[in-house]
């Protein structure tokens, strides 16, 4: 804003100086020009000519005109047919242009004064041309052309110096004016930019989550109105966010309470279904099928309840890491063995040996199990599990399959809770929370997990955890 203020001041000073310069230059040059042309014409008109002209007499006339030059001395030249005479030691001047000479001879029989400003060798000149006339004895008052043209050359260096002095004075006056203009510019900028800075700091504070941020608004200008509008919007946002947080807390508490309350009856149901599974072989086929269905659905419900309990702990920020230094390859192998994923045609483990990391073994087991189980459910064998240390010194666990891969429109949502790529599919063999729990467990370790498609086909999930 200060720059803009100074720019306006500079443009104003420059424009004023330019207009002043033009007006002063025109006034100075026109005054000098009018004085010189008028005096020169009077001198030439006062010549008493006797034709034919004598060179010596003509030179004396020119010297006399040159001595009376004003406002500054003239150098006077004359042309009469082939005769060339001057008040100097040179009969002709290179300053006199053909254009001026042509204008001097343009009107036969009528005295016509011509003048021209010329710059020669860096020096400005005023050149003048006046045709001399004489009056006949039998026609008093009638001017007749004599064929003589008188020229005068006068330097304008002093006038240019006066103009340059005006320019210097205008420039020297503009610099203090700009310096003085800096003071109101700073005051104006302070008055305008200070509320803007306060508004920016308040917006940054709200962006960091401090919704109680407010701006001190005073006055009745537009910036004050903006500050009051910001305060009103911030207050409304704070109320809305507080209500959303309360609703979210109620929803989390409800999910946690329901999951907790379901665990006790589910434990009894699981015990009963185990007994029924053992005796299913002695039952008729329809009853046995119903018993096995109840047993399978009870197991799914138990898994869903456990996953809900786990995700509730993440939401409540109650999840904790219990780390230990472990051998990564051993941990992955234990996960595969405990889930009975040991068929080499189904799962292949390519594990780097000797990689040790501080991990929570239980949570790391959940991460690997969820990724491999997801690959087996939604992809096709062979599922490959790799574990290695990358060039940045981080642990990388990669699980890939040879299935159709993940549709591009689904990729951004694979870690969302209960997300279904096919809305028509209402039932799933999983809880719908496996990948969400995987993401939270990896974040708890300070790592990242990414889903992508392999160029050769199949989905690839990559976990990266700093060692």
Automatic annotation (TrEMBL):
It catalyses: ATP + protein L-histidine = ADP + protein N-phospho-L-histidine. It comes from the Bacteria. Residues 190-242 form the HAMP domain. SUPFAM superfamilies: ATPase domain of HSP90 chaperone/DNA topoisomerase II/histidine kinase, HAMP domain-like, Homodimeric domain of signal transducing histidine kinase. It is an enzyme of class 2 (transferase). It is found in: Cell membrane. Keywords: ATP-binding, Cell membrane, Hydrolase, Kinase, Magnesium, Manganese, Membrane, Nucleotide-binding, Phosphoprotein, Protein phosphatase, Signal, Stress response, Transferase, Transmembrane, Transmembrane helix, Two-component regulatory system, Virulence. Its main location: membrane. The keyword Hydrolase applies. It is a multi-pass membrane protein. Its cofactor is Mn(2+); Mg(2+). Residues 1-17 form the signal peptide. The keyword Ribonucleoprotein does not apply. Its EC number is 2.7.13.3. PANTHER family: SENSOR PROTEIN CREC. This is Signal transduction histidine-protein kinase/phosphatase MprB.
């Amino acid at each position: 804003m200060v720059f803009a203020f100074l720019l306006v001041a500079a443009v104003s000073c420059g424009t004023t100086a330019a207009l002043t310069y033009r007006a002063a230059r025109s006034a100075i040059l026109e005054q000098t020009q009018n004085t010189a042309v008028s005096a020169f014409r009077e001198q030439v008109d006062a010549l008493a000519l006797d034709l034919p002209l004598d060179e010596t007499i003509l030179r004396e006339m020119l010297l006399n005109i040159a001595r009376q030059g004003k406002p500054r001395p003239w150098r006077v030249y004359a042309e009469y047919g082939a005769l060339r005479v001057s008040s100097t030691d040179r009969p002709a001047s290179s300053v006199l242009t053909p254009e001026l000479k042509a204008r001097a001879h343009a009107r036969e029989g009528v005295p016509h004064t011509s003048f021209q400003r010329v710059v020669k060798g860096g020096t400005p000149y005023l050149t003048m041309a006046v045709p001399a006339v004489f009056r006949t004895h039998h026609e008093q008052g009638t001017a007749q052309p004599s064929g003589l043209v008188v020229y005068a050359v006068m330097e304008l260096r002093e006038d240019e110096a006066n103009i340059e002095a005006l320019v210097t004075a205008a420039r020297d006056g503009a610099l203090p004016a700009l310096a003085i203009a800096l003071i109101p510019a700073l005051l104006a900028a302070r008055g305008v930019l200070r509320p803007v800075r306060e508004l920016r700091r308040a917006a940054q504070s709200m962006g960091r989550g401090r919704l109680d941020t407010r701006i001190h608004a005073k006055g009745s200008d537009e910036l004050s109105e903006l500050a009051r509008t910001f305060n009103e919007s911030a207050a409304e946002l704070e109320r809305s966010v507080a209500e959303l947080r309360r609703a979210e807390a109620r929803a989390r508490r409800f999910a946690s309470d329901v999951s907790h309350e379901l665990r006790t009856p589910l434990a009894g149901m699981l015990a009963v279904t185990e007994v029924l599974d053992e005796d299913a072989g002695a039952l008729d086929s329809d009853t046995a099928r119903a018993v096995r269905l109840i047993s399978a659905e009870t197991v799914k419900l138990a898994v869903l309840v456990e996953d809900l309990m786990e995700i509730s702990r993440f939401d409540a920020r109650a999840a904790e890491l219990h780390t230990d230094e472990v051998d990564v390859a051993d941990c992955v192998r234990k996960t595969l063995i405990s889930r009975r994923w040991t068929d080499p045609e189904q799962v292949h483990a390519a594990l780097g040996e000797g990689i040790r990391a501080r991990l929570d073994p239980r949570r790391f087991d959940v991460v690997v199990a969820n990724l491999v189980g997801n690959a087996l459910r939604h992809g096709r064998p062979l599922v490959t599990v790799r574990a290695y240390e990358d060039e940045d010194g981080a642990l990388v666990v990669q699980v890939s399959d040879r299935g159709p891969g993940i549709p591009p429109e689904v990729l951004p949502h694979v870690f969302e809770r209960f997300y279904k790529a096919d809305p028509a599919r209402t039932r799933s063999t999983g809880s719908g929370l496996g990948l969400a729990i995987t993401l939270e467990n990896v974040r708890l370790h300070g790592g990242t997990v990414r889903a992508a498609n392999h160029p050769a086909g199949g989905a690839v999930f990559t976990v990266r955890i700093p060692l």
